[in-house]
Design a protein that fits this description.
The complex is a heterodimer. By secondary structure, chain A is α/β, with parallel strands linked by helices. Chain A is built from 29 helices and 20 strands. In chain B, the strands form 2 sheets. In chain B, strands 1, 2, 3, 4, 5, 8, 9, 10, 11 and 12 form a 10-stranded mixed β-sheet that branches. Chain B has a two-stranded antiparallel ribbon with strand order 6-7. In chain B, α1 crosses α2, α3 packs across α14 and α6 packs parallel to α12. The chains are: A alpha/beta, B alpha+beta. At the A-B interface, α9, α10 and α20 of A face α5 and α9 of B.
Chain lengths: ~725, ~400
């Protein structure tokens, strides 16, 4: 697990090399394994035979994160607190005796992996733009432990530590240096070890700032009246951004504030208690389950038809250089693919190049690429107005606007240039794939590829199976999406596919509340405060009321005589027919839009639907907004629109912003409690109608191990 | 229970509670000391007659810390007097001090007490005593605890008040205060602040301005927009999701002004008054404390008023004059509207918008103000109420005897 090497300068190199694992994982084993090592270091120090220590790794990564399977499983705060305390003691034993320790980091050091580096006196990182470091625990509803929130505060001050710890960022080495969480960069492995040795030779008996009498937290403590104003503002901003839905961010801020007022040791204990409490919170379990376990389940291919070799994409043809097409181009270019970007004229296609260029500049700013790489990267992008340039493409992604005829025309032209193995993906939100593929020579090679705006940033792609799409094409589309670091979920070719269909029920539920006499502001605030990015009415406006209605009409067709009209349909018809308010693009929908970009709820709403519900049951409204989505997602599973709870969960969070702290639509049920959820849904069913009926699939789901939270499925 | 009488009430002038205020050069304890010396001089009590002194002070730290009540007693040469205690019930402190002292007298445990409040906001800034409810994100985020100005804007939004209505109210406060000042209504109760040689530093309320006009007032920018945008408005919506947004309507002109000042009330039972040859000016009829939702925070006066009226079997019609502290225009306007008060009976000599609000002192100031005015107009009954931090409110009814 740990190998030791000592040189003639009395510098000890400690090499992490965990057995039977592809990566070094930080868990309680490592702190235990360290006990004899630390003892030996202390003995040698006492004998004057130890000058310094270098921590490094024999694996590709320095130390990857903590043992998430363990954190998911353990519900005992005492055990967690004791483990965190043990880790604290380990870190203290490493940094306190005054034997300088350097972390020589040549691969990823994230989460707990970086925490070990935090406990070193000096951090040097290999300047490879692919390396990532940082403490993004917050992304999984967690926070660092073992005193590393407090160390970060002592390094950067409360404000900057808060920013770094709540950002969830994986920093490139360049950026990490700029932010101040590492000390030095090295150009290559050899220089890395040399720099580590040099630092040790020039720093003897070195102590951390908090172990030096008289030193202070940069920027002051939370007792400082000036800083407290800043902290108030940070907290208010967090409240506005998260509506108190993020226990991890709150925990981090609170540990920083409280920890700044007491001595280092006590501060670490405050942190560890908070950590133990947080790990046991439903939010942390939900987020580990979805963003770690579900994510890896998708990544390892639960969606992908078996038996087809890996599709190695090199060149991608993109039709349409608008926002969507250019965004997709960025995603491809950024991950090493070549792109042919086509539009009606070369000049228009060039606008796409401009967009890609700007995004690459941003990535250079963030340290993802070196400035010197820009030219090479941009060379991989060709713009054109001729389909003939698609000749060598492995895949075509069509992203022109929503017109059936246009889409068919451009894809037919492209298809003529391709060989039999290449596939064509269409990025549509409302036209059935099976309809679009009708005129193709090889409809089996045609698939829906639904990216979400902004396409280079939203990590989800819906892969839509048309009636003719072959399994092999699906497998290839999945491989393509993975290649550009997207989460692919395979969905059925129905109205709105998965994300659009479920999202619509949220909108409709909000609209039906309006019809019942709830104030529109209440409806909107309820949605936003639950953690959804938009209120239901706001979202209806953004999509256009016509589309919202169209989706529901498609649902009506689908269910035929079994369909019971949603109460929101009535409201939509009044809005569209009586008031001619079609949505945001017409500057008139549920909101009215000022010339200056401001908007407010349309004053006419309360005339058509008077605010008769002066009092309200908040929980009830919140649950209706969430349950409507959860139940529709269950119907999607029942009807095999999506085929795994992992896909349903990730699709809900990334596809339309279902509150991430719930872990997604299906995880929501586990968190709520299966029996309680059934009981409550029955109540709503009785009171509000068929739309709250639960499909049978839920009972089947209960039997799935993945649904119950697969343990230790991934590392 | 024994009757509790007000034998006297007086105050210092109110100075602007900033570095450019006249009382900024005066140390906080001196304000209270001057008031106490004056009270003793006017009433002629001996140190040993005093059973206790209770002083409201909202920022009891630094120069106002370590029990400013006892400190002022010692400075005023009253070391032989009993007691000395500082209390904090936010902006109601000065009135709460009176109520507490009155309760002990009513119970028969004490005979003569000094109560009141003091605050030097120029020297000891509001909030400088810290506090978890203000500064600990773990507490104020959970409570959706807003800065008061944002809470006042929330009230205005929920009540549908317009900027024009708030400004018109502020103008009325200024005009009334100016008139009262011009006519010398405040003069009998004001104790000037002088230096050690007796040279005057401030002898009249500093903040009232004759030159207030609606046009300039309406040109002022809302004062709490930035705080709202920082995130506090979102916290307000979190608690009150039925409103679309918080309209920021309060400005420097229609909110109370920061101020320095102190006020004292001499309270006693009938027997002690007779012994000292004092003539009672009024009787404390009843008092109460309530709390409302801490997020909206400042709507308590209505509830406090209903409760104190009920306590003593009175109705709105029984009250001749009303004082509701003008923390913000929306607070007074809501009070007037909810209780359907005649505007000619509410805050008749202006209020904190025009005259300033020295936090801990204001409760006692308003009690003295209403008493003076009842005497001037020869009316009988007055009610004083103040809203306060964290949703608290206090109300007291007095009647002339």
């Amino acid at each position: 697990m740990i190998r030791l090497k000592k040189d003639t300068d009395n510098i000890m190199t400690i090499i992490f090399d965990m057995k039977d694992r592809p990566h070094n994982v930080v868990n309680h084993e490592i702190s235990e394994a360290f006990v004899p090592v630390l003892q030996r270091l202390q003995e040698e120090k006492a004998q004057g035979q130890l000058r310094g220590v270098i921590l490094t790794s024999a694996k590709n990564s320095f130390l990857s994160g903590g043992d998430l399977g363990y954190l998911y499983d353990v519900d005992d705060p005492e055990e967690l607190f004791q483990q965190a305390e043990k880790l604290s003691h380990f870190f203290r034993a490493l940094e306190k005796p005054g034997v300088p320790v350097v972390a020589a980091i040549s691969g990823n050091a994230l989460g707990s992996g970086f925490e070990v580096a935090m406990a070193c006196h000096h951090r040097i990182v290999l300047d490879d733009p692919r390396v990532r470091v940082g403490m993004p625990e917050v992304n999984l509803g967690l926070m660092p432990s073992g005193g590393n929130v407090i160390r970060m505060m002592w390094l950067l001050g409360i404000e900057q530590a808060y920013n770094v710890l709540t950002s969830g960022r994986h920093y490139s080495p360049q950026e990490a240096l700029k932010v101040g969480i590492i000390d030095e960069l090295a150009n290559n492995q050899k220089e890395l070890m040399e720099k580590a040795r040099e630092w040790l030779l020039s720093h003897t008996d070195w102590h951390r700032p908090w172990d030096q009498p008289g030193s202070e937290i940069p920027g002051g403590t939370a007792n400082d009246p000036k800083l407290i104003l800043k902290i108030r503002s940070m907290a208010a901003q967090m409240a506005a951004a998260t509506y108190n839905n993020s226990p991890a961010k709150r925990a981090i801020l609170n540990v920083l504030v409280q920890g700044s007022k007491v001595d280092f040791g006590t501060a670490c204990r405050i942190e560890n208690r908070r950590f133990a409490h947080l790990v046991c919170s439903p939010t942390a379990k939900n987020m580990i389950s979805t963003f770690w376990m579900d994510y890896h389940a998708i990544k390892t291919g639960i969606n992908r038809p078996r038996g087809y070799g890996r599709f190695r994409v090199r060149k991608v043809g993109i039709i349409g250089s608008g926002q969507m097409g250019s965004g997709i181009a960025v995603a491809c270019i950024q991950h090493g693919l070549s792109v042919v970007l086509k539009d009606v004229s070369k000049a228009i296609a060039e606008r796409g190049r401009e967009f890609v260029s700007q995004r690459i500049d941003q990535l250079i700013q963030e340290g993802t690429f070196h400035p010197s790489e820009k030219e090479q990267i941009m060379k991989r992008l060709v713009t054109t107005d001729k389909a003939a340039d698609f000749k060598e493409c492995d895949i075509i992604v069509e992203a022109v606007f929503e017109s059936e005829a246009l889409k068919q025309k451009v894809t037919t032209e492209a298809e003529a240039q391709l060989d039999h193995y290449s596939i064509i993906g269409t990025n549509t939100v409302s036209i059935p794939i099976s309809k679009l593929s009708a005129g193709m020579q090889r409809p089996e090679n045609y698939v829906g590829l639904h990216f979400f705006h902004p396409a280079d940033q939203v990590p989800l792609v819906e892969i839509v199976r048309g009636k003719d799409t072959s399994d092999e094409t699906i497998a290839r589309a999945v491989d393509f999406a993975q290649r550009i670091m997207k989460i692919p979920i395979v969905v059925k070719d129905i109205w709105g596919f998965y994300a659009g269909r479920v999202r619509n029920t949220y909108i409709l539920e909000g609209i039906s509340m309006l019809q019942e006499g709830y104030s529109p502001a209440l409806i909107e605030n309820s949605g936003r405060q639950l953690g959804l990015p938009h209120g239901p009415l706001e979202l209806a406006d953004a999509l256009g009321l016509q589309l919202v209605l169209k989706y529901e009409e498609q649902a009506a067709n689908h269910y035929g005589s079994k369909y019971v009209q949603h109460p929101a349909v009535e409201v939509l018809k009044v809005m569209l027919q009586e008031h001619q308010r079609t949505g945001r693009s017409a500057k008139a929908g549920f909101y009215e839009y000022g010339e200056d970009g401001t908007r407010q709820l349309w004053s006419g709403l309360t005339e058509s639907w008077p605010n008769t519900q002066k009092t309200y049951d908040r929980q009830n409204l919140n649950e209706r907004l969430l349950f409507s989505q959860v139940i529709e997602a269950l119907w999607c599973m029942q009807e095999k629109v999506v085929t795994s709870s992992a896909a349903a969960n990730l699709g809900s969070v990334y596809g339309w912003g279902f509150p991430r702290e719930t872990g997604g639509v299906i995880r929501f049920i586990q968190d709520y409690g299966m029996d309680e959820f059934m009981k409550q849904s029955q109540q709503y069913h009785k009171k509000l109608g068929q739309r709250f009926r639960i499909p049978k699939v839920l009972k089947e789901l209960m039997l799935e191990p993945a649904f119950l939270g697969a343990k230790g499925a991934v590392e | 229970m024994n009757d509790v009488f007000i034998y006297d009430a007086l105050r210092t002038p109110r100075g602007r509670g900033k570095q450019n205020g006249a009382l900024y050069e005066v140390k906080p304890v001196h304000l209270l000391e001057v008031a106490l010396r004056a009270l003793q001089k006017r009433s002629g009590f001996n140190a040993t007659d005093i059973d206790d002194m209770i002083i409201g002070c909202v920022t009891p730290t630094g120069d106002q810390g370590f029990n400013i009540a006892r400190t002022a007693m010692l400075e005023a040469g009253l070391s032989a007097a009993n007691g000395g205690m500082q209390i904090n019930r936010y902006c109601t402190s000065g009135l709460e001090a009176v109520n507490l002292a009155a309760a002990k007298i009513a119970a028969g445990w004490e005979s003569l007490s000094v109560a009141g409040g003091t605050e030097s906001m120029s020297r000891v800034p509001m909030g400088s005593d810290g506090g978890a409810l203000l500064n600990d994100p773990g507490v104020f985020m959970t409570q959706n605890y807003l800065p008061q100005g944002v809470a006042a804007d929330l009230i205005a939004t929920m009540e549908g008040f317009t900027r024009e209505e708030l400004d018109a109210y502020a103008l009325r406060s200024h005009q009334r205060a100016q008139k009262a000042k011009d006519n010398g209504y405040f003069k009998p109760s004001i104790v000037p602040i002088c230096d050690a040689s007796g040279l005057p530093i401030l002898s009249k309320d500093e903040l009232v301005r004759a030159d207030v006009d609606l046009e300039r007032m309406s040109a002022l920018r809302p004062a709490f927009t930035a705080l709202g945008q920082q995130g506090f408005a979102a916290m307000a919506l979190h608690r009150y999701p039925e409103i679309e947004k918080v309209h920021h309507l309060h400005t420097a002109a229609n909110s109370c002004a920061l101020a320095d000042g102190a006020a004292l009330v001499l309270l006693g039972n009938a027997e002690k008054g007779k012994e000292l040859g004092l003539k009672p000016r009024a009787r404390i009829v009843n008092c109460t404390t309530v709390s409302v939702d801490p997020t909206i925070m400042l709507t308590g006066p209505v509830a406090a008023t209903k409760r104190v009226l009920k306590n003593c079997g009175k109705t709105v019609a029984d009250i001749d004059l009303w004082e509701c502290n003008e923390a913000f225009a929306a607070v007074a306007l809501k009070y007037e509207r909810d209780l359907k008060l005649d505007p000619e009976k509410l805050n008749v000599n202006g209020g904190s918008i025009a005259l300033g609000h020295p936090l801990g002192a204001t409760g006692a100031i308003l009690l003295g103000t209403v008493l003076d005015e009842l005497e001037r107009q020869d009316l009988q009954t007055g009610l004083v109420t103040l809203c306060a931090g964290a949703g608290l409110a206090v109300a007291t009814i007095i009647e002339r005897v």
